[in-house]
Amino acid sequence: MEKNKITSAGKLLLSEVYFRNRYNALMQIVDSQIDQRMVKVAVYEHNVTLPPIVKNVVTRQEALRNMMVNLKAMKAKTKEASKQGAKLIVLPEYGIYGPAKLGGLDKTKLVPYLERIPNPNIVSWNPCDNPGLFTDADVQIFLSCLAKNNSIYVVANYGDLQQCQTNPNCPSSGHLQFNTNVVYDNHGNFIAKYHKFNLFYEFHFDTPKQAEIITFQTPFGTFGIFTCFDILFHDPAIELIEKGVRNIVFPTAWMDEFPFFFSVQFHSAFAIGSGINFLASNLHLPSNKFHGSGIYTPNGAAKYYYDVKTKEGRLIVADIPVLEKFSKTQKTSAITTTYKTVSVTNYQSQFSVPLFHDHFNIVQVNNRLGSISVCHNKLCCSLSYQMTGNDERFVFGAFDGLHTYAGRYYLQICALLKCRDSNHESCGLFTNTSTTYFKDITIVGNFSGTYIYPEILLSKDGELTLSTFQKWQHNENVLILNGTSEFPLLSASLFSREYSRDTATETQTQTQLLG
């Protein structure tokens, strides 16, 4: 244990009056760029039926029978979404045949489930209207007709099998196979294809040579597309946002990870921090930690579903604002802020605690009212707060460095976090209960980058829930709660990815099999 010697960089408690004025100015800029039209969209959290685990490779017909169970469920929910007025629906990653590992599908056993998916930039094709153009395209035809018959844009995740005999690096199988998103417009036309670039230990798929930056046009805005683990890396996720894309469709097979990567927690934070609409469709397999889907906007969750108790999936339908592209000058003006600081003179004992397999420097939140700071490497974080009671242990921590568990990427995080019990070691353990309300929180950090995502997690009757974000304000490296939290607090964090410090080797490192 050693005394936490706060540097001048760590004495960063923002003037709240100044910030609120600056925040209101920011909101006027953002509001001026939001088309006041609204559009109804849908995401479907699907309880996927896994194929039977078999010793040998199944036939194509057996694979189709297995997939049809899930496709029929998707058909029913797509029809329901259309009846509710939705113009677009997103279906989950691995929703058609399930995560390969859970279904016993290695790279060879997966092949009968895949189809050759053409390049829509080269081939103009409506599979529903012209089903004979390609052989073995049953799933593509089904999805195209699903879109056409329900007059709805359909975003689905499937598998693309591409022959590669002319490629000197072609494997002995003679083909490559990719985790692939496909998009069909409301007439059934095939309009977009995206190959997942950042595979999460999916050894049954191949990695594309480079990240694809894929968008598609609709009457209600330009949409970008990427998949699951892609969200943590610059390419393609941030590349799309830097190009001004403000609507993202996101098929995912997301597994919760305490304390910063609960699905609805991180996806809503990404939408808010990026100023975008974000449509996340997840699997519903709570026993395997796959669950949590939502429709998120720059102002928080329009609607989400997070239920660990039921076996049923859920169709989510909500209205979102029609967001037009940011111009480069607009985006710059919207995020430029000058900060004021006040001095912190109190010093607290500092501990090192593993959170998310990273060793954070933390200080204990001892008093009902106070201001504290903590530093780790070049990052210093400051907190001012009020809270009801101090029977439960909360800590405030900082991390600045390379995260190395289940991937390698650089993070900077300031986090106010509830511990499971009174021991410091419990601060890295999952808890979903809290009875402590916080009031007038200000968290600020001297982050190196500008990609900072505000994460808020509350506890409602022992269930994880999001804040409405009506009481919270966020701008770059500052998070403020005005008034009292709606429910007892579990965590409030500023989560920053330092993409510029990543290397190609680190972002492609894989250490365990998930998919």
UniProtKB/TrEMBL annotation:
PROSITE patterns linked to this entry: CN_HYDROLASE
Signal peptide region: none
Keywords: Glycoprotein, Hydrolase, Signal
Residues annotated as domain CN hydrolase: 53-322
One Pfam short name: Vanin_C
InterPro entries: Biotinidase-like_euk, Biotinidase/VNN, C-N_Hydrolase, C-N_Hydrolase_sf, Vanin_C
SUPFAM superfamilies, per the entry: Carbon-nitrogen hydrolase (SSF56317)
Family, per entry: Belongs to the carbon-nitrogen hydrolase superfamily. BTD/VNN family.
Name under which the protein is recorded: CN hydrolase domain-containing protein
Organism, scientific name: Tegillarca granosa
Lineage: Eukaryota, Metazoa, Spiralia, Lophotrochozoa, Mollusca
